[in-house]
Amino acid sequence: MSQQAVESAGMKIPNCSKPFECSECNKLFRQLSTLTNHMKIHTGEKPYKCTICQKEFRQTTTLSNHLKIHTGEKPFNCNFCNKQFRQLSTLSNHQKIHTGEKPFECSVCGKQFRQSSTLNSHIRIHSDDKFCEKPYACTYCSKTFRQTGTLSNHLKIHTGEKPFECAVCGKQFRQSSTLNSHIRIHADDKYCKPSTATVSTTVNGGLNLKLEDIKPFYTPM
């Protein structure tokens, strides 16, 4: 979307700290460039495409973070436990586990949380409105969910999407956790599990586990 198109779609409010207003939802922004990116939500425009899996994105920064899934790059290290992360924001949230920091507090019951998204999910349990408790509705069957991640997993039932494939037998799954459970049936020892250190990604961004990646996690008697 060109700057001229954004300017015609939005409004500039004089003498305002957030002078740029979206004409679709009336959200305000400090900068025109931020409004430009926001307008893509309404237009559905996703001009940045991953050359590996063809997934499309609205912003170059989101594409850059996505590419790390394919490359395996995790440049951000936790200085407490040396765990590695693809994004600085994920590292920041993780480090709160070590520091015990929980800056987001429920105004109803006082319970504290590390992330605002967790607080947002929690606050719905205090609502008398059942729709507010589960505000994310499936467009196929109208089933409602508390979190967008749960809705995303549910939608795969309708779309038939199974992005996680077993490298041994080719069976596909909707969730990585189901693949992790399945891969154990290929091991000679039923008490074996996949090594998390050797999980790789498929072309479409899913997980790909190999039989040789399975190792025992107990000592035989």
UniProtKB/TrEMBL annotation:
Residues 20-47, 48-75, 76-103, 104-131, 136-163, 164-191 form the C2H2-type domain. Pfam families: zf-C2H2. Coiled coil: none annotated. Keywords: DNA-binding, Metal-binding, Nucleus, Repeat, Transcription, Transcription regulation, Zinc, Zinc-finger. Its main location: nucleus. It is found in: Nucleus. GO terms for cellular component: nucleus. GO terms for molecular function: DNA-binding transcription factor activity, RNA polymerase II-specific; RNA polymerase II cis-regulatory region sequence-specific DNA binding; zinc ion binding. SUPFAM superfamilies: beta-beta-alpha zinc fingers. InterPro entries: Snail/Krueppel_Znf, Znf_C2H2_sf, Znf_C2H2_type. Belongs to the krueppel C2H2-type zinc-finger protein family. Belongs to the snail C2H2-type zinc-finger protein family. This is AGAP006701-PC-like protein. May be involved in transcriptional regulation.
